[in-house]
Amino acid sequence: MSLQSSLRAVTPASSSNPAHLAPGGALPDQAAPTLESLPHVEIRLDHAAKTLWTFMRPSGRPSFSPSLLRDLHAVQQDIHHLAVETDGALPFRNIVVGSRVAGIFNLGGDLSLFAEKIMQGDRKGLRHYAHHCVDVVFANADGYGHGLTTIALVQGDALGGGFEAALSCDVIVAEKHAKFGLPEILFNLFPGMGAFTLLSRRLNPRMAEKIILSGQMYTAMELHEMGIVDVVAETGEGEAAVSDYLARIGKRQNAHDAIQHVKRMVNPISHQELRDITDIWVDAALKLTEADLRKMLRLVNAQNRRIATPEPKSVAS
Questions:
Q1: CB burial readout 273-298, b (16+ within 10 A) else e
Q2: CATH at 112
Q3: How far out from the chain centre does Cα 147 lie?
Q4: Where is this region: Disordered (predicted)?
Q5: Model confidence over 71-104: pLDDT tens digits?
Q6: Residue 253 belongs to some domain of the structure
Q7: Into how many domains does the chain fold?
């Protein structure tokens, strides 16, 4: 069910979108979906808790494929249109971002697409994909431009861009079994869709660099002790933990909203900075060797075996 079906249809053609919600957002060779059909994002509105629950449900490997990014972008546009139509009086104050893939939040960027674009030397395609990723990240970090609190519900592994997506939210609630990591260093690249900016915001630049260069996997409890994960829940109790958190902040919603506003003012995230970093990422990606790409595709193959999908073609040696 789409956001508009859950609430009401609003598509004011004259409204002005923020930069990250600009029209014409479909990825190359992909038609933008209608808002009545978002096959890769499930939406549920909890009126009582003033919360919009969204769950990623990508087909195939649970990564940020062009189709998933397109649907997430459509939800962002829908929220902005509704805010314009209601003069900011949205029926929700919080957005939860979760996943319907058992044991996996998100495995990150579309590595098969990366390898293809790199082998083709397609700078424009890589840059376009990367910009769409950070547009989604920025919307979370910026409260969708309407002062909303974003909550990542991590009920499984969050790797690469999946970890970055969780970090982009104001609050991270993770089930105890969830694992987090930035594996890009294993194939001689770095996570370019916000990791350094977002980790620096929660920790400091030195720790952000250490985490990125380590390629290490972390448990939810380890990240909780570091101050990255806010709430650790028992396995299977993530949604209940989010509901408990929402109930607590609901008793002091005015103060909570004000603090979120102050946090964004004191430690802002720049949309342009995120896009500029992706340009550095594109330059680095295009310098990868065939040996690096083989390592990347070995990771893709491991992910495919995990979810039993066809393996991609190997890079010619």
A1: ebbebbeebbeebeebeeebbbbbbe
A2: 3.90.226.10
A3: 18
A4: 1-32
A5: 999 998 899 888 888 888 899 999 999 999 999 9
A6: no
A7: 1
> At residue 181, what are phi and psi to the nearest 5 degrees?
-175, 160
Q: What is d(CA 160, CA 117) in angstroms, rounded to the nearest whole number? A: 18
pLDDT on residue 195:
98
Residue from 3, 258, 23, 265 nearest 135 by CA: 23
Q: Which range marks the domain in which residue 92 is found?
A: 3-8+21-236+262-306
Q: 130, 142, 279, 276: which is closest to 201 by C-alpha? A: 142
Hey, how many other C-beta atoms are within 10 angstroms of the C-beta on 23? 9
Cα separation values, 297 from 113, 117, 304, Å = 10, 13, 10
Task: Give every residue of the chain whose pLDDT is below 70, as ranges.
Answer: 1-37, 308-317
Query: Is the residue at 255 inside a domain?
Result: no
Q: Which residues contact 185 (CB under 8 A, 6 or more apart)?
A: 212, 213, 214, 215
Angle of CA points 76, 260, 167, to nearest 5°: 60
What does the pLDDT look like over 294-311, one tens digit per residue? 999 999 998 888 876 444
Quick one: pLDDT at residue 31? 44
Question: What is the value of pTM for the model shown?
Answer: 0.87
- Adjacent-strand bridge partners of 68: none
